[in-house]
Design a protein that fits this description.
It is built from three helices and six strands, in the order βαβαβαβββ. It is α/β, with parallel strands linked by helices and 127 residues long. Strand 1, helix 1 and strand 2 form a beta-alpha-beta unit. It is globular and about 35 Å long.
Protein backbone atom coordinates (compact mmCIF):
# COMPACT_ATOMS: atom_id res chain seq x y z
CA UNK A 1 0.00 0.00 0.00
CA UNK A 2 1.26 3.45 -0.93
CA UNK A 3 0.85 5.11 2.49
CA UNK A 4 1.49 2.14 4.77
CA UNK A 5 2.99 3.33 8.05
CA UNK A 6 2.64 7.02 7.18
CA UNK A 7 0.88 9.61 9.36
CA UNK A 8 -1.21 12.11 7.42
CA UNK A 9 -2.60 15.30 8.96
CA UNK A 10 -5.46 16.54 6.76
CA UNK A 11 -7.32 19.82 7.27
CA UNK A 12 -10.92 20.35 6.10
CA UNK A 13 -11.25 16.56 6.37
CA UNK A 14 -14.99 16.51 7.06
CA UNK A 15 -16.05 17.31 3.50
CA UNK A 16 -15.01 17.77 -0.10
CA UNK A 17 -11.42 17.30 -1.20
CA UNK A 18 -10.20 16.91 2.38
CA UNK A 19 -12.62 14.06 3.09
CA UNK A 20 -11.87 12.32 -0.21
CA UNK A 21 -8.13 12.61 0.43
CA UNK A 22 -8.54 11.22 3.95
CA UNK A 23 -10.48 8.22 2.60
CA UNK A 24 -7.83 7.49 -0.04
CA UNK A 25 -4.86 7.79 2.32
CA UNK A 26 -6.66 5.61 4.88
CA UNK A 27 -7.55 3.00 2.27
CA UNK A 28 -3.90 2.94 1.17
CA UNK A 29 -2.65 2.13 4.69
CA UNK A 30 -1.99 5.57 6.15
CA UNK A 31 -3.00 6.74 9.60
CA UNK A 32 -5.30 9.72 9.09
CA UNK A 33 -5.46 12.62 11.53
CA UNK A 34 -8.57 14.41 10.31
CA UNK A 35 -8.90 18.08 11.26
CA UNK A 36 -12.04 20.14 10.82
CA UNK A 37 -13.99 22.90 12.54
CA UNK A 38 -17.34 21.05 12.32
CA UNK A 39 -17.37 18.36 15.06
CA UNK A 40 -20.45 16.43 13.86
CA UNK A 41 -19.29 16.20 10.25
CA UNK A 42 -15.77 15.38 11.42
CA UNK A 43 -16.97 12.45 13.53
CA UNK A 44 -19.06 11.12 10.61
CA UNK A 45 -16.04 11.31 8.29
CA UNK A 46 -13.71 9.60 10.78
CA UNK A 47 -16.30 6.89 11.51
CA UNK A 48 -16.65 6.24 7.77
CA UNK A 49 -12.87 5.87 7.41
CA UNK A 50 -12.66 3.54 10.42
CA UNK A 51 -15.55 1.39 9.14
CA UNK A 52 -13.54 0.81 5.97
CA UNK A 53 -10.81 -0.74 8.16
CA UNK A 54 -8.46 2.25 8.15
CA UNK A 55 -6.92 4.10 11.08
CA UNK A 56 -8.37 7.56 11.65
CA UNK A 57 -8.34 10.10 14.47
CA UNK A 58 -10.42 13.26 14.81
CA UNK A 59 -9.03 16.64 15.83
CA UNK A 60 -11.65 19.38 16.01
CA UNK A 61 -9.84 22.66 15.32
CA UNK A 62 -10.01 25.81 13.23
CA UNK A 63 -7.23 25.51 10.64
CA UNK A 64 -7.31 29.29 10.28
CA UNK A 65 -6.23 29.77 13.90
CA UNK A 66 -2.46 29.35 14.35
CA UNK A 67 -2.84 28.52 18.08
CA UNK A 68 -5.28 25.67 17.35
CA UNK A 69 -3.09 24.41 14.50
CA UNK A 70 -0.09 24.40 16.84
CA UNK A 71 -2.04 22.34 19.37
CA UNK A 72 -3.08 19.81 16.73
CA UNK A 73 0.48 19.47 15.43
CA UNK A 74 1.88 19.03 18.94
CA UNK A 75 -0.73 16.41 19.86
CA UNK A 76 -0.24 14.53 16.59
CA UNK A 77 3.55 14.45 16.92
CA UNK A 78 3.17 13.56 20.59
CA UNK A 79 0.96 10.58 19.78
CA UNK A 80 2.54 9.33 16.55
CA UNK A 81 6.07 10.73 16.75
CA UNK A 82 5.87 12.53 13.42
CA UNK A 83 3.77 13.86 10.56
CA UNK A 84 4.74 12.35 7.21
CA UNK A 85 2.05 13.89 5.03
CA UNK A 86 0.40 17.28 5.39
CA UNK A 87 -2.68 18.08 3.32
CA UNK A 88 -4.10 21.56 3.70
CA UNK A 89 -7.49 21.27 2.02
CA UNK A 90 -8.87 24.52 3.45
CA UNK A 91 -9.48 26.80 0.51
CA UNK A 92 -10.39 30.36 -0.28
CA UNK A 93 -13.52 29.18 -2.03
CA UNK A 94 -15.02 27.83 1.17
CA UNK A 95 -17.37 29.85 3.34
CA UNK A 96 -15.35 31.31 6.20
CA UNK A 97 -17.29 32.15 9.34
CA UNK A 98 -15.36 35.39 9.90
CA UNK A 99 -15.37 36.86 6.35
CA UNK A 100 -14.25 40.32 7.47
CA UNK A 101 -10.80 38.98 8.30
CA UNK A 102 -8.04 37.70 6.10
CA UNK A 103 -6.40 34.83 7.95
CA UNK A 104 -3.06 33.12 7.84
CA UNK A 105 -2.68 29.37 7.91
CA UNK A 106 0.61 28.29 9.37
CA UNK A 107 1.84 24.79 9.96
CA UNK A 108 4.91 24.04 12.01
CA UNK A 109 5.62 20.37 12.05
CA UNK A 110 8.07 17.50 11.79
CA UNK A 111 10.86 16.56 14.15
CA UNK A 112 13.00 15.76 11.09
CA UNK A 113 12.55 19.00 9.16
CA UNK A 114 11.80 22.58 10.07
CA UNK A 115 9.30 24.05 7.68
CA UNK A 116 6.57 26.58 7.56
CA UNK A 117 3.85 26.62 4.99
CA UNK A 118 1.96 29.86 5.03
CA UNK A 119 -0.99 30.80 2.92
CA UNK A 120 -2.76 34.07 3.30
CA UNK A 121 -6.36 33.83 2.31
CA UNK A 122 -7.78 37.05 1.02
CA UNK A 123 -11.48 36.45 1.47
CA UNK A 124 -12.31 39.15 -1.05
CA UNK A 125 -11.47 36.71 -3.79
CA UNK A 126 -7.73 36.54 -4.45
CA UNK A 127 -4.88 34.67 -2.94
Amino acid sequence: MRFDGRVALITAAASGIGRATARIIGAEGGTVVAVDIAPDRLERAVTEIRLSGAKAHAQCADALDPMQVGRVVEETVGEFGRIDILVNAVGGSTIIERPAQARVICFLASADADFVTGVTIDVTGGL
